[in-house]
């Protein structure tokens, strides 16, 4: 079934308010798909009743009271909770369009924000109603304003959890390779040591950070290899200061030692984790640290560097990532869904879901990661599942993505806060 603008117009009146462009509120709607994935399990023949911005009821469609509801038939479709992207950078665009260095150093901030508004819209239209945006990469606190514009309905976009600038140890991050005689703006905030770190964490929180992101290692070794940055004590301090305000700390880490320190310090998720070993993944399991593997990012950058996927054998980096990801699964580490989208195109977030399946997860497990697991790991108690009382953030796709993950790209309808967004 194909929805058209005229279908929505006849069902709900004009889709958008002319002045604000904000979708009109649709209240009391009974959605009747073929099946419902509730964030944990698949139910054939279920329906979902939405009242205002919340889910009112879910269960066998025949049992749902529809007397005062508009009924929307979603024949052939699966209805899922709005998907939660765990690792985005709405202020970045693909590196094969413009290198990361040039985005940070040469693009005007207004240009980056203009692009970000389009990225936000494309993300929402792809069925991702929440993003955890892990750093503006040189655009200071612009994620805070972007989030406000979305929350106020000025522009369409997903709900945002923002990290603002992110924290880096002095000298460790990028852009690098310039004359030591000039100070080059960095893609995140440099801070070190007791007082400076406390100030930086509190400043980021004060300016709107929902989560603190640290780079526990980065490519600054003698051979440009990744090496740990912050000491264990520095990481513990960051976590302690963030936690006392009720905020989690998450860590970029790709090395064994960077991951070990981040885990022991109490960081709640490890981003990337490429160099993980069975011992490190056992430690993650023990400390209930989740892994956000970002497999799509490595897949994308390898191709930007010339790898012809499907024609040439997989580069060493990809082969190693397959091995370490499998080790993480075998260790029982909780897997977040998050692709590092921005490295590749916003709206193409499903690429990570397809790759998680390609790398060894079952479609149902990958879909849990993108819904209930991410909600739990990110402390979002109001979404991530289709349950009475939760936000009516929903996505309808053609077919059954629990059987064939590719169906997740066939988005036919997106609902945010009970408002129907045009696909
Ligand atoms: Zn990232």
UniProtKB/TrEMBL annotation:
InterPro entries: Amidohydro-rel, Metal-dep_hydrolase_composite, Metal_Hydrolase, Metallo-dep_Hydrolase, OTAase-like. It holds the Pfam family Amidohydro_1. This is Amidohydrolase family protein. Keywords: Hydrolase. GO terms for molecular function: hydrolase activity, acting on carbon-nitrogen (but not peptide) bonds. Residues 78-420 form the Amidohydrolase-related domain. It comes from Larkinella knui.
């Amino acid at each position: 079934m194909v929805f058209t603008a005229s279908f929505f117009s006849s069902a709900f009146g004009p889709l958008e308010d002319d002045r604000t462009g904000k979708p009109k509120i649709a209240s009391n709607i009974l959605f009747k798909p073929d099946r419902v994935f509730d964030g944990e399990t698949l139910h054939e023949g279920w329906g979902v009743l939405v009242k205002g911005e919340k889910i009112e009821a879910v269960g066998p469609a025949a049992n749902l009271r529809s007397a005062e509801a508009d009924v929307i038939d979603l024949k052939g479709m699966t209805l899922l909770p709005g998907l939660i992207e765990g690792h985005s950078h709405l202020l970045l665009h693909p590196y094969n369009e413009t290198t990361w260095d040039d985005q940070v150093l040469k693009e005007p901030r207004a240009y980056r924000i203009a692009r970000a508004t389009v990225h936000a819209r494309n993300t929402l239209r792809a069925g991702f109603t929440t993003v955890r945006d892990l750093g503006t990469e040189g655009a200071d606190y612009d994620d805070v304003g972007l989030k406000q514009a979305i929350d106020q309905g000025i522009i369409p976009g997903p709900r945002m959890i923002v990290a603002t600038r992110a924290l880096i140890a002095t000298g460790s991050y990028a852009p690098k390779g310039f004359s030591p005689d000039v100070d080059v703006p960095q893609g995140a905030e440099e801070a070190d040591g007791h007082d400076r770190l406390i100030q930086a964490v509190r400043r980021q929180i004060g300016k709107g950070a929902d989560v603190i992101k640290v780079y526990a290692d980065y490519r600054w070794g003698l051979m440009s290899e990744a090496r740990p940055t912050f000491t264990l004590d520095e990481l513990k301090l960051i976590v302690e200061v963030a936690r006392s305000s009720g905020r989690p700390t998450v860590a970029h880490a790709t090395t064994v030692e960077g991951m070990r320190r981040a885990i022991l310090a109490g960081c709640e998720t490890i981003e990337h984790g490429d160099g993980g070993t069975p011992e490190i993944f056992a430690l993650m399991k023990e400390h209930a640290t989740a892994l956000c593997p970002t497999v799509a990012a490595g897949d994308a950058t390898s191709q930007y560097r010339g790898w012809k996927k499907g024609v040439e054998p997989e580069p060493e980096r990809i082969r190693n990532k397959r091995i370490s990801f499998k080790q993480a699964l075998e260790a029982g580490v909780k897997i977040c869904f998050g692709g590092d989208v921005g490295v590749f195109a916003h709206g193409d977030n499903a690429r990570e879901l397809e790759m998680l399946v390609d790398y060894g997860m079952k479609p149902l497990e990958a879909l849990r990661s993108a819904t209930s697991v991410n909600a739990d790991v990110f402390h979002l108690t109001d979404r991530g599942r289709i349950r009475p009382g939760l936000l009516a953030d929903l996505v309808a796709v053609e077919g059954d993505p629990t059987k064939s993950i590719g169906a997740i790209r066939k988005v036919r309808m997106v609902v945010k806060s009970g408002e129907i967004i045009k696909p």
